[in-house]
Design a protein that fits this description.
Elements: E1 4-9, H1 17-30, E2 35-40, H2 47-50, H3 60-64, E3 76-77, E4 83-86, H4 100-110, E5 117-122, H5 128-135, E6 139-144, H6 148-173, H7 176-184, H8 194-204, H9 206-217, E7 222-228, H10 236-248, E8 253-259, H11 262-270, H12 274-277, H13 282-297
Parallel strand pairs: 1-5, 1-6, 2-4, 2-5, 6-7, 7-8
Antiparallel strand pairs: 3-4
Helix pairs in contact: 1-13, 5-6, 6-9, 7-8, 8-9
C-alpha cells in the first residue's frame, strides 16, 4: 500500500509550520509508523536543524542536479526511530521553483516510498508549486497563528488552493464551456460564491456538475491553530472552517489548537524536537492528540 501523504502549508512564515510538521511526524513514528519528512521549503529548509541533523550529506539538490536518480537515494535516517528525512538543504535559488516535470516526478516517487506516512513541509505562500504539492496530498493541513496577518494569508492560501483544484476539476469534467457560460451570467443570476457557481453549473449540466462536485469535495482542508495565547483564540479554527464551508461549499475540519509554549523555543535552541526534549509539554501533548485523532479518523483514499 502506498504511503499516506500529508502536506502542511501556511499562508505566511513564522506560524510554526515546520516545527508542527516535524513533531507530527515524530508522534506518528512513536506510534510505530514508518514516516518520511520531505522538506519542500526550498530556499528556507530547516527540518534538518529541528531534527538535530546539522549537515545533511544528501538533499533534494542532488536530485535536481541528477547526482541522485530517485528520492530513495537521498533518504536520510534521523535520530528518531522510524523517521527519515528528505532534506531541502543546499538548494540553490533556482531550485525554489522546480520545473513541472521534476515536481511531478517527486510526487510520483513519494508514492513509491516503503513507509506508512510522508509529511511534506511546504514553503510559505501560494505559488503554483506549493499548491500542487498541497493538492497532491491526502491530508491537506494549513497551520495558522491567531494574528490578523497570518489569518489573512491563510485565507488567501485556502482560496488559491481551492481555485487551482477547481480548475483541474473543470478540465477533467470537460466543462470549460459550461463554466464560461455560467460566469458570463454571474451577475444576472446573483452568483456570489464558488458554492453558488457550482450549483449553477449543476443546474445547467447535472453530469458535469456532479463530477466537479466530487472532485472539489476531496479538496477538504484541515486547520491547526498554533501559538494560541488567549481563550477566545481557541475557537479561531472552528470559525475559519465554518467560513470556508459557507463560502466554498466544501468541508473543512479543525484539527485542534496548540497553546503557546516557551519550551518550543527552548527545544529549537537545543536543536532537538519538542516531543523528545519536552515530551510532557503542552505543545507535545497537543501534537500527539492531533496525530492520534487523524490516525483514528483518517480515511483511506487517493490524493486529489
Amino acid at each position: 500500500m502506498p504511503p499516506r501523504l500529508w502536506a502542511i502549508g501556511s499562508g505566511k512564515g513564522g506560524v510554526g509550520k515546520s516545527v508542527v510538521t516535524a513533531n507530527l511526524a515524530i508522534a506518528l513514528a512513536q506510534r510505530g509508523k514508518k514516516c518520511v519528512i520531505l522538506d519542500a521549503d526550498l530556499g528556507g529548509a530547516n527540518q534538518h536543524t529541528i531534527l538535530g541533523m546539522p549537515n545533511p550529506r544528501t538533499s533534494l539538490a542532488d536530485l535536481f542536479s541528477r547526482t541522485a536518480a530517485s528520492l530513495k537515494e537521498i533518504l536520510l535516517p534521523t535520530p528518531v526511530p522510524n523517521l527519515w528525512l528528505i532534506s531541502g538543504a543546499h538548494a540553490q535559488l533556482e531550485m525554489a521553483n522546480p520545473k513541472h516535470a521534476l515536481k511531478e516526478k517527486i510526487i510520483r516517487q513519494l508514492g513509491t516510498l516503503e513507509v506508512d506516512h510522508v509529511l511534506i513541509d511546504l514553503g510559505a505562500g501560494s505559488t503554483f508549486n506549493v499548491l500542487d504539492f498541497f493538492l497532491a496530498a491526502h491530508e491537506r493541513i494549513v497551520v495558522v497563528a491567531p494574528v490578523p496577518t497570518a489569518i489573512e494569508n491563510a485565507y488567501h492560501f485556502l482560496k488559491a488552493a481551492y481555485y487551482r483544484g477547481l480548475k483541474r476539476a473543470i478540465q477533467r469534467a470537460g466543462a470549460a464551456r459550461i463554466v464560461d457560460q455560467a460566469m458570463e451570467e454571474k451577475v444576472a443570476r446573483g452568483i456570489r460564491s464558488p458554492r453558488e457557481l457550482l450549483a449553477q453549473i449543476t443546474a445547467m449540466d447535472p453530469a458535469a456538475g456532479a463530477a466537479i462536485a466530487r472532485d472539489v469535495a476531496a479538496l477538504a482542508p484541515r486547520l491547526i491553530v498554533n501559538q494560541v495565547q488567549q481563550e477566545e483564540e481557541l475557537e479561531l479554527g472552528r470559525r475559519m472552517a465554518l467560513a470556508y464551508r459557507d463560502y466554498f461549499g466544501v468541508q473543512a475540519d479543525f484539527l485542534g489548537a496548540i497553546r503557546s509554549d516557551d519550551r518550543v523555543r527552548h527545544a529549537i535552541k537545543m536543536k532537538r524536537p519538542v516531543l523528545e526534549a519536552f515530551p510532557q509539554s503542552v505543545f507535545a501533548q497537543a501534537i500527539r492528540e492531533i496525530a492520534e485523532y487523524r490516525l483514528n479518523t483518517g480515511e483511506a483514499g487517493n490524493a486529489g
